[in-house]
Amino acid sequence: MPLLFSCYPLARAWLFSLDAEKAHDRPLSALNTAYRFPVTRALLHGAPELPVKLMGLTLRNPVGLAAGLDKNGACIDALANLGFGFVEVGTVTPRPQPGNPQPRMFRLPRAQALINRFGFNNQGLEAFIDNVRKSRWRTQGGILGLNIGKNASTPIDRAVDDYLAGLKAVYTHADYITVNISSPNTKNLRALQEQAELGGLLGALQEQRKALSDQHGRSVPMVVKIAPDLNTEQVDTIADLLMQHGIDGVIATNTTLSRDAVQGLPHAAEAGGLSGPPVHELSLRVIARLRERLGKDYPIIGVGGIVSGAMAREKIAAGANAVQLYTGLVYRGPALIEECVNALR
Predict the structure, then answer these.
(1) The pTM is what?
(2) Which fold has domain 3-344?
(3) C-alpha–C-alpha distance, residues 313 and 8, integer Å
(4) Checking phi first, is residue 306 left (phi over 0); if not, alpha (psi -120 to 50) or beta?
(5) Are 111 and 127 in contact (CB under 8 A)?
(6) Domains of the chain by residue range
(7) Element (H, E) at 43
(8) What amino acid positions are annotated as catalytic residues?
């Protein structure tokens, strides 16, 4: 493990003295700067190997970066250099949007958790694709997922238009594409998880993917990211629709609206999605039900609340084929990546 990774607790003390959103943005900028120079790039390089196959793709290891940390795809190479087996960036919307008013990110240190209500703040598809084109991760054999969503100003009954625009724009630049219908921070977005709405959306996306596959001679895997707050009947409905429409995989799960595990903590009453260990058990329940409904071979990526290698193992034991990290990186730093890979050996 690189020496600098072990120094993260010192850096975290300084970062936690800053506003939560500034502490989110500044390390990314610093990491990008450090990546430009061979010496500092080497000091921040992790390369844990544990190759796995997923959706026909070969991952260097089964521990990936979850979407949300790098919404604009501006830090792909620097983040990949930390040792991830695959990297997912976004969520990107067709048009640039500022997201929700600040403050919109809050720490709950006693629970190693975060609450955010960013609202898909991003620079839009044009800037996103430009950043993805500049990155070298894919040319070096890395796996890149691109996560698409809808603009807040787009009425929910026109949401399919935004997802089709996103799919078309990112198609040739992605190893897989994630359809995000589960953020709690865009009004009515989670309604797309209901049977009629999801069936219509997936049918339209699959039709366009077929056309894009014919055009480019390559079928790019497509996955759907779902919420942890679904009941068993809703999970079963989503699982059935995923198979019915030929969707290649599922990411379980996004952040939760539940506050049961953090009641009484400072900031617990803030609106937004809760991430970190309070989501872990909710995510495990959804993953286990998906595995039961989808069968043993259907690709599932587990995300939500992993802050240790043992928790990564629990995701796999519940039925996931690979895992993703986000909030755990804030609290544990990049050493968590290798810890998780070693735990999964």
Answers:
(1) 0.96
(2) TIM Barrel (3.20.20)
(3) 23
(4) beta
(5) no
(6) 3-344
(7) helix 38-43
(8) 183
